[in-house]
Amino acid sequence: MHLYGTQSVNNLGHLTIGGVDAVELATTYGTPLLVYDIALFRQRAKAFKETFKQAGIKAQVAYASKAFSSIAIYEVAKQMNLSLDVVSGGELYTAVMADFPREKIHFHGNNKSFEELQYAFDEKIGCIVIDNFLEIELIKEISEARQQSMNVLLRVTPGVNASTHDYITTGQEDSKFGFDLKNGQADDAFLKLFNHPYITVLGMHCHIGSQIFETAAFRLAAEALMEKMVEWRKKFKFVCPVLNLGGGFGIRYTSEDKPLPPSDYVQEMENVVLSMTREHNYPLPEIWIEPGRSLVGDAGTTLYKTGSTKTVPGTRTYVAVDGGMSDNIRPALYGAKYTAVSAGKMMDPHLDKVTIAGKCCESGDKLIEDTYLAEPVEGDIVAVFCTGAYTYSMASNYNRLPKPAIVFCEDGEHQLIVRRETYEDIIKLDIPLQKTDSGKLS
Questions:
Q1: CATH architecture for residues 8-37+297-427
Q2: Which helix (H) or strand (E) holds 243?
Q3: In whole angstroms, what is the distance from residue 12 CA to residue 20 CA?
């Protein structure tokens, strides 16, 4: 079986994460429980930064926090001297509450509201990544009314179709994101902002997709943006000081996944940029990247407690756990695959072929089909690996299930960083029906 980061097996035969017994964690905090190996997050962040440092390239590594947002993870990102990618007013507010350095916050999103943009100006963040023509007009309006400066990047679609799931492919021409490089939209957007008294165009941004395992798409995207930068210098005498090549670096969910080391993706980008800047005598831009999943994905493990077991003769055995699609929608949404172990029986043979089913009232609520566990009995703790990205951030209260607690583990210590929801939390926004004496609505 494949373990991740600091995971190991102790003398009790229990899975440990960050030096802490997973069964002890489940007993202390209850289940479902999302556990993060913070040492692995730090290791990945350091690896990205070191690759740029070794190449002598000025860079920003921004944590793409839509993968997992919380005050505590933003605080760890701040400790690692990362920048931060936010995509909503809610994520920006969380960053503010974490006292994240405002100048290192980049605001993304394809439909930012006027109020969200005002909030970004209020907090004097480092950069807004502009996604559409309406946003250009809104930012102009705010900056001119306030006479306040703002740095921006233009998000562009380079026409690169990465090999990934349709739902998480974003760099092709048919995308809801950004200005198209090939049909002139990017040029039109640039001209609307060029020489504006309060808006500084730093350069371009692209993001070609998620869970990508090869470097060719990143190379093609970097080439497309560099060619446009060279063209803008020739046409407008404008030099882009920043080139943001996004994220999307794949991780290992199952044995079928073959991710590359973070340095391989970065080096491919570096090679293109260095080659083309030398070829065109172009000033070397500062490179920004936005890893999200590759920082937190395999740092997260969800612990569940098993309940009922149902065997369908000749078909399969279902083992139900106390969570499901409410805390991890990805298998139901786009067929995401995971691996699991019996966290309290790591030394026992994992020979029982089962399907791990959730407790939501949906036939499709299956976390993993056809995996192997030690002989399951009620009350076992099952660990599902690589749940650190896009699980809690996409969690819901479907069936009015409370969202799980979250714990950080590092160097044998553990800390609760998001408490488990209660039933009271679930109804706290509900308003009872106000009735007249007749019993009907007023």
A1: Beta Barrel (2.40)
A2: strand 242-244
A3: 12
Nearest Cα neighbor of 165 from 213, 205, 206 is 213
Binding residues for substrate: 293, 330, 334, 362, 390
CATH of segment(s) 108-291: 3.20.20.10
Q: 409 an active-site residue?
A: no
pLDDT digits (tens, 9 = 90+) for 86-113: 999 999 999 999 999 999 999 999 999 9
In angstroms, the CA 76 to CA 304 distance is 26
101/353 Cα distance (integer angstroms):
49
Angle 57-62-65 from CA coordinates, rounded to 5°: 165
Phi, psi of 31 (to 5 degrees): -130, 160
Tell me the average pLDDT across 20-47.
Answer: 97
Tokens standing for 40? 């692995």
Q: Which entry of 206, 240, 360, 361 is annotated as an active-site residue?
A: 361
- CA dist., res. 357 & res. 340, Å (int): 12
- Please choose, from the candidates 189, 277, 191, 185, the residue with its C-alpha nearest in 3D space to the C-alpha of residue 227: 277
Domain boundaries, the chain: 8-37+297-427, 108-291
Residue 135 CA to residue 11 CA, distance in Å, equals 58
E strands, 313-441, are 316-321, 340-342, 352-357, 366-373, 381-385, 405-410, 413-418
User: Strand 300-312 vs strand 381-385: parallel, antiparallel, or unpaired?
Assistant: antiparallel
Say if residue 265's pLDDT is above 90.
no
The pTM of the whole model exceeds 0.85:
yes
What's residue 218's pLDDT?
A: 87
Binding site members: 248, 290-293, 330, 334, 362, 390
- Contact between residue 70 and residue 91 where contact means Cβ atoms under 8 Å apart: no
Enumerate the H helices of 111-261 as residue ranges.
114-122, 133-146, 185-193, 216-236
- What per-residue string of b and e applies to 230-262 under the rule 16 or more CB within 10 Å gives b? bebbeeeeeebebbbbbbbbbbbbeeeeebeeb
Mean per-residue pLDDT, 307-320: 95
Binding site residue list for pyridoxal 5'-phosphate: 248, 290-293, 390
Q: Is the pLDDT of residue 168 over 60?
A: no
